[in-house]
Amino acid sequence: MEGNVQTEVGPLRPSELLAMVRKGEIKPETRLRKNDSAWFPASDVGGLFEAAVRQEIQYYCPACGLRIDQPPRTCPRCLRDIGRGEAREIKPEKMTANIALSGEAEEHKEERQSVQNWLQKKVSGRSKK
Description:
- The protein is α+β, with helices and mostly antiparallel strands.
- Among the domains are: about 10-55, no CATH class; about 55-95, no CATH class.
- About 30% of the residues lie in helices and about 10% in strands.
- It has three helices and seven strands, in the order H-E-E-H-E-E-E-E-E-H.
- The protein has helices at about 15-25, 50, 105-129, and strands at about 30, 40, 60, 65-70, 75, 80, 90.
- A three-stranded antiparallel beta sheet has the order 4-3-7, with no helix packed on it. It has a two-stranded antiparallel sheet with strand order 1-2. The protein has a two-stranded antiparallel ribbon with strand order 5-6.
- Strand 1 (about 30) and strand 2 (about 40) form a beta hairpin.
- The longest helix is centred in the C-terminal third of the chain and has 23 residues, at about 105-129.
- The chain is flat, with a radius of gyration of 19 Å.
């Protein structure tokens, strides 16, 4: 929506859709459709808003510093073959859940956070063993 005017954008790749959610351009009530299907709210896309608040790891070529897709791959700028452990990884600061969970009641946010904390402790405990 731009004011009172609806605009149609697309088709979009999944990464483009995620980027729009992260920027706040797509909200849970935004209407989407796949191909020529009926329109539905973005909140019906399973995992879309959860994925938007996950950290996105960015990879960079260790030789020239160009941002690249997940290794192994060849850098398109310097043509260096980059193995899995060779690329520099940058993990942006964790995004706030306000973007994806803006329509969620406050008590559900706290409940979700406590479940996430429990799961994180459980996983980290398992990796120490």
